[in-house]
Design a protein that fits this description.
Length: 417
Amino acid sequence: MVEPVNNQMQWVNALSTRPSLEGAVEEVVERVTAALPAKADLGLVFISAAFASEYTRLMPLLQERLEVPVLIGCSGGGVIGMKPNQEAQEVEGEPGLSLHLAHLPGVNVKAFHIFAESMPDLDSPPDAWVELIGVSPQEQPQFILLADPFSSKVNDLIQGLDFAYPGAVKVGGLASGSARIGGTGLFCNYKLYREGTIGVALSGNIVMETIVAQGCRPIGQPYRVTLGERNIVLGMEAESAAGVGATAKSGTPLEVLRDLIQSLSEEDRMLAQHSLFVGVARDEFKQNLEQGDFLIRNLLGVEPSAGAIAIGDRVRAGQRIQFHLRDANTSAEDLELLLSRYQQQANTTAARGALMFSCMGRGEGLYGSPNFDSHLFHRYLSNIPLGGFFCNGEIGPVGGSTFLHGYTSVFGICRQP
């Protein structure tokens, strides 16, 4: 027996590039309400920084035209959504408004706004975080988080939510489009906020699956940290099971890095001058590490006198690390690999909607052509409404924990169980 339409999850998205905010709101509302025959339970709106002077007008305009009980959103340096021909478009540096509506039968939808000063400290028990959110861990919620980059203490929030809701998927990004404090916009239930984090917890008849494309490829071989202090790698040794073509050189971290760079092709040596990163393995026990098994972090600098290297994360003895490179080709290949793997392993026919949180450093500036990540997504997962924005930092899981990333595209794909 076929389920009635109203009992099935439905997502729709519309994108407008009209230069007038009234015109853009009118277009997206008209299109999404026409496309969604059932009652909307959740709305997500993303507005480009080209409308920065009009953020205060967005919620009143939507409230006049929409009847959605829970609405969240934020500003971005660019927005992502669906054109009338149902092709995805990434609008960068120009007026853009993307509106997602979702009919979510059997799903509890709980929106929240959190000021940094109201967050528990990291020594607090899980109950303090549960009280802050107002959703029990037994409900197994999935989270969408949108945060101000200047005032949210988002790393502490992510760590606290992982502690209180282990195994819960958390995706999202930092609002973008302004370099000044108070210049971004966060929207929650028809109100505009200028600081903190807004989000929604979705529990019940919903599954959110993720693709986190960090856009890097490993070079050389894995090493094990033998001595680390805060974010400084002071000692490391080659793993006994060296990768194909790897050379198990020993020495200080800086000497190891210099030897590795000398072993690269001329093209990769040039790339290493400005696009060299460190991957920290998330699984301490996995024998053969692959692309996607690493949390990518910036290589911040070197300390020649100690032969040490500094990375953008805390390190400790016993961790496995591997150097990585990033460029447009690598970024494209990484996303394609992850999409192909997802297509083979997941029930893609059950997917109903997807959110895309992409770094401001990707898009046309990285690839030299527009709409690259969104069109690649639809090549593997067609007919899924896609919406999102370009972020100042992307939130997504790697190896069972949630992190704030850079240069990454995070996809949250929603379906019924």
